[in-house]
């Protein structure tokens, strides 16, 4: 289809539409919002990882000068133990509400207990210290294997395991058990000539967006609630507020301001309902901001996990069987991404016999939230390390073993779906041909590793309207918050259809009252699904403008065609008019033209990546230096290649951080001891080389331009690729993340 | 209520007066009192660089400076960089290189890069990485940011 097509706009690198506002400091992010009469809110958080709340006395705080209102879980409508669907699958409403303000138990250090609104943030903070909370401290459980033990401290007295459709009756921390089966696992291992089985542990890591969570809320006298905030999805905020506050969606308007990173962590709401409760109580607009420690301690990290991987193969490298058990930490409430991890764990390979078991386990850490390809990185760390060991054992090049077993169109993923056209093999070939892979790498303590990754991507609903201006430009209205340049990638798809430059499209991200439902900016869906809606809305514009041309030329509308930005008449009359000129004649031919489209496309098309990394291990200090990094990825079709490269580079570096440094460090009381950017070490530019990218384009049949989501998969391969490189450098297999200097030194027998 | 101090300072070449409590940081004063919200708060303890401004020619984290400390000094913020009809070359280079994704770190990086280029107009890649190590970006992997600063240096 689009493989050979020449595009005018797609594939070019225009300046992003919101760029000037963002380099001049003029763009308004959530925390920048100002409004007359604003009060400032602050949340009191639990100092204990696990405790029963005996009593809360807010009277001293209420009496503090400058305090205008205090709220606790008592101010939330009583939440039932029922399930609500908020667009990302069903959620238990009591859990959702308890995570906003704890009602009976504090389940992690940092759990929100109460909140204060005051005339300035310092007074609100002072007042928090005047709230008297009596706790009955309980023993915490902080590690997934311990939480699964029969005698572990129990978080939820009413939680029982739902296992493969059945529910057991004993209270437990194992919220659910899932399973995928393909073929005959026992026969598969019996057929194998080599079997490798390893255990892996990954740490708790945070999305690490630089902008803390924020919200400003105001109730008008007529009951209209407005919330200004940064979020990955204004509509999901509206839905969550409606459920938590038991308030009609028609009375809630969510205004998405610019967002300073999310990576999955700004889908769940935390302080938005709190701001609304404080606004209701005080009758004033209230702004609530988190500080960095709140973000680490009170918002979703991505889960630590314990994973076993067992893979069997023939001597020639053909994999005959693969089995895994994935135990993921959900945090305080059920809902880890173990389901997604199970979908991805063996997805790059076509394996006949597979058995996958997944466990969702609660323990005393913040409720986990999605983080870029949630679950897939944990899983790939295991699989890709074992595949590397298999290749080494059988003396096969690690790319060759992947080429031999790699999934192709028509192969079935262990969890069910059959692949349409995918580009995994092409990413392997691109890596194989790359000068990085063919270069020599023989120095002492230097090593090279490769690993691949998969993410399934999602579609979901998007709405776009396009208003034609008389000068031949258009205003494009959309509901997808722009976290990384999607105004541009969406506008470019409309521009391509209309035959106008990218700069002639003015994209605007608007509030929930001003556009049709649009799902979150997540799942690598925005350029795909909202872009698809922009494409269709632009087609709608063309269709309507053909009618106008027909009217002008007094021909039948079937006789008007549109190509390369020009309308022309066929059959008889020789007429021609550019999009721009016809735009100037709309008022004479019937008035404005507004194109519209809503989409819920099914063919998101999976994304694959293969990475090559060179490292140097300092055997004295245990530090691993990244010397060179090359990432190949199938983008389907790169709409704006610079921002595709940017997604790849950013994902790789998050993966490097996850691999080498990042983790929540807990003491025995369950307190995170490194809740700052100083102690939770994310990569800086000094820790890194340039990140080379190779964009492979295997068009996705599920999109008119062949687009595949690109944002998430680049985080998946790095930990395994780096582990494999460390093995190449020093001959030690690292099976625990992060591979920090202390763990390296332990592995080297130096400490 | 704490008694506020009256401060006279210069911000982006304009004389500015404001009232602030002794405990308010320069970042808080810029954002909440003067509505110059280009400087961002990422950590409020000197570890992310999102709040970077230039104080009397020196790069500082405005979250670590008190508002009252600016008495008689001169502050440069992101809002003062562009001319009415023209962006600063560093701003242009960030746009040309797609050196921002979410953009929350961008004002801090641009101010930090300006402080670097003011003192060292032709830095090497390593010098740029060393200088910018106090600014965190979680979106870009820094590749395009470093290239933007190299380009800006070449353009000036
Ligand atoms: S906000 Fe000042 S350094 Fe992070
Ligand atoms: S662009 Fe998002 S933090 Fe740098």
Give a short summary of the structure.
Chain A has 751 residues and is of the alpha+beta class.
Per-chain topology:
The complex is a heterodimer of chains A (751) and B (156).
Chain A: H1 19-23, E1 39-45, E2 51-57, H2 59-63, E3 67-72, E4 83-85, E5 90-92, H3 93-100, E6 105-106, E7 112-118, H4 121-128, E8 132-137, H5 144-147, E9 160-163, E10 166-171, E11 174-182, H6 185-191, E12 194-202, E13 205-206, E14 214-219, E15 225-229, H7 234-245, E16 252-256, H8 272-282, E17 286-289, H9 292-298, E18 301-302, E19 305-313, E20 319-331, H10 338-344, E21 353-362, H11 376-393, H12 398-405, H13 424-433, H14 435-438, E22 446-455, E23 462-468, E24 474-478, H15 486-498, E25 505-509, H16 526-553, E26 560-563, E27 566-569, E28 576-578, H17 579-583, E29 594-599, E30 607-617, E31 624-634, H18 641-660, E32 691-696, H19 718-730, H20 741-747
Parallel strand pairs in A: 1-17, 9-11, 15-16, 20-21, 24-25, 31-32
Antiparallel strand pairs in A: 1-7, 2-6, 2-8, 3-7, 4-5, 9-10, 11-21, 12-19, 13-18, 14-15, 14-17, 19-20, 22-30, 23-24, 23-29, 26-27, 27-28, 30-31
Chain B: E1 5-11, E2 14-20, H1 26-33, E3 52-55, E4 58-61, E5 74-76, H2 89-96, H3 106-119, H4 125-131, H5 143-155
Helix pairs in contact in B: 2-5
Bound molecules: FE2/S2 (inorganic) cluster (FES) (2 copies).
One FE2/S2 (inorganic) cluster (FES) is lined by residues 41-44, 46-51, 61, 63 of chain B.
């Amino acid at each position: 289809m689009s493989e050979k097509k020449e595009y005018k706009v797609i594939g070019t690198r225009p300046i992003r539409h919101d760029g000037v506002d963002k380099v001049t400091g003029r763009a308004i992010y959530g925390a920048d919002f100002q409004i007359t009469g604003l009060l400032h809110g602050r949340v009191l958080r639990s100092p204990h990882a696990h405790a029963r709340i005996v009593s809360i006395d807010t009277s001293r705080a209420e009496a503090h000068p400058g305090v205008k209102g205090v709220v606790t879980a008592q101010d939330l409508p009583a939440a039932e133990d029922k399930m609500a669907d908020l667009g990302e699958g069903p959620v238990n409403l009591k859990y959702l509400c308890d995570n906003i303000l704890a009602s009976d138990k504090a389940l992690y250090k940092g759990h929100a207990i109460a909140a204060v609104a005051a005339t300035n943030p310092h007074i609100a903070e002072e007042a928090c210290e005047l709230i008297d909370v009596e706790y009955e401290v309980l023993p915490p459980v902080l590690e997934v294997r311990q939480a699964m033990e029969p005698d572990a401290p129990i978080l939820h007295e009413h939680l029982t395991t739902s296992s493969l459709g059945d529910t057991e009756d004993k209270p437990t921390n194992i919220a659910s058990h899932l399973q995928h089966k393909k073929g005959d696992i026992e026969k598969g291992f019996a057929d194998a000539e080599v079997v490798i089985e390893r255990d892996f542990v990954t740490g708790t890591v945070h999305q690490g967006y630089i902008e803390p969570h924020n919200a400003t809320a105001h109730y008008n006298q007529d009951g209209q609630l407005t919330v200004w905030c940064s979020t990955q999805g204004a509509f999901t905020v509206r839905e969550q507020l409606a459920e938590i506050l038991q308030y009609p969606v028609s009375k809630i308007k969510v205004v998405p301001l610019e967002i300073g990173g999310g990576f999955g962590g700004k889908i769940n709401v935390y302080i938005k309902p709190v701001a609304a409760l404080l606004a209701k109580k005080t009758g004033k607009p209230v702004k609530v901001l988190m500080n960095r420690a709140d973000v680490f301690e009170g918002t979703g990290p991505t889960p630590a996990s314990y994973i076993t991987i067992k893979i069997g193969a023939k001597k020639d490298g053909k994999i005959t069987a693969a089995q895994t058990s994935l135990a993921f930490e959900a945090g305080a409430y059920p809902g880890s991404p173990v389901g997604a991890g199970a979908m991805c764990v063996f997805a790059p390979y076509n394996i006949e016999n597979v058995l996958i078991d997944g466990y969702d386990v609660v323990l005393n850490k913040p409720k986990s939230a999605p983080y870029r390809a949630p679950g897939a990185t944990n899983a790939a760390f295991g699989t890709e390390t074992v595949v590397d060991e298999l290749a080494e054992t059988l003396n096969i090049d690690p790319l060759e073993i992947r080429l031999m077993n790699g999934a192709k169109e028509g192969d079935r993923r262990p969890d069910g779906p059959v692949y349409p056209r995918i580009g995994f093999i092409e990413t392997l070939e691109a890596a194989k041909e790359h000068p990085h892979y063919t270069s020599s790498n023989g120095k002492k303590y230097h090593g090279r590793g490769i690993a691949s990754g998969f993410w399934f991507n999602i579609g979901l609903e998007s709405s776009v309207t396009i208003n034609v201006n008389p000068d031949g430009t258009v205003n494009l209205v959309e509901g997808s918050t722009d976290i990384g340049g999607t105004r541009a990638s969406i506008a470019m798809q409309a521009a391509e259809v209309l035959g106008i430059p990218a700069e002639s499209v003015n994209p605007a991200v608007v509030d929930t009252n001003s556009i049709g439902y649009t799902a979150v900016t997540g799942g690598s869906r925005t350029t795909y699904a909202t872009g698809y809606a922009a494409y269709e809305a632009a087609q709608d514009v063309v269709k309507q403008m053909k009618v106008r041309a027909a009217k002008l030329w007094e021909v039948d509308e079937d006789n008007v065609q549109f190509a390369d930005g020009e309308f022309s008449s066929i059959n008889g009359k020789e007429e021609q008019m550019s999009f721009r000129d016809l735009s100037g004649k709309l008022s004479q031919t019937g008035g404005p033209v507004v194109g519209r489209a809503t989409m819920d496309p099914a063919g998101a098309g999976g994304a694959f990546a293969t990475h090559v990394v060179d490292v140097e291990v300092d055997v004295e200090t245990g530090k691993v230096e990244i010397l060179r990094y090359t990432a190949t990825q199938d983008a389907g079709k790169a709409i704006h290649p610079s921002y595709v490269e940017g997604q790849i580079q950013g994902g790789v570096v998050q993966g490097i951080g996850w691999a080498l440094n990042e983790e929540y460090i807990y003491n025995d009381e369950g307190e995170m001891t490194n809740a700052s950017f100083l102690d939770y070490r994310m990569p800086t530019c000094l820790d890194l080389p340039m990140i080379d990218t190779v964009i492979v384009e295997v068009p996705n049949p599920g999109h008119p331009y062949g687009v595949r989501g690109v944002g998430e998969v680049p985080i998946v391969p790095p930990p395994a690729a780096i582990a494999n490189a460390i093995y190449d450098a020093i001959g030690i297999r690292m099976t625990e993340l992060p591979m920090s200097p202390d763990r390296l030194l332990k592995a080297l027998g130096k400490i | 209520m704490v008694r506020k101090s009256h401060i006279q300072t210069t911000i982006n070449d304009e004389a500015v007066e404001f009232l602030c409590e002794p405990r308010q940081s320069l970042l808080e004063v810029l954002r909440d009192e003067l509505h110059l919200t280009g400087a961002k708060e990422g950590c409020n303890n000197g570890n992310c660089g999102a709040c970077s401004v230039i104080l009397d020619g020196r790069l500082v984290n405005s979250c670590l400076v008190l508002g009252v400390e600016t008495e008689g000094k001169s502050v440069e913020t992101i809002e003062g960089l562009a001319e009415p009809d023209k962006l600063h070359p560093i701003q242009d280079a960030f746009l040309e290189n797609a050196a921002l994704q979410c953009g929350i770190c961008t004002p801090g990086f641009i101010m930090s890069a300006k402080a670097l280029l003011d003192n060292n107009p032709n830095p090497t890649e390593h010098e740029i990485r060393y200088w910018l190590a106090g600014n965190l970006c979680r979106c870009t992997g820094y590749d395009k940011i470093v290239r933007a600063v190299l380009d800006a240096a070449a353009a000036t």
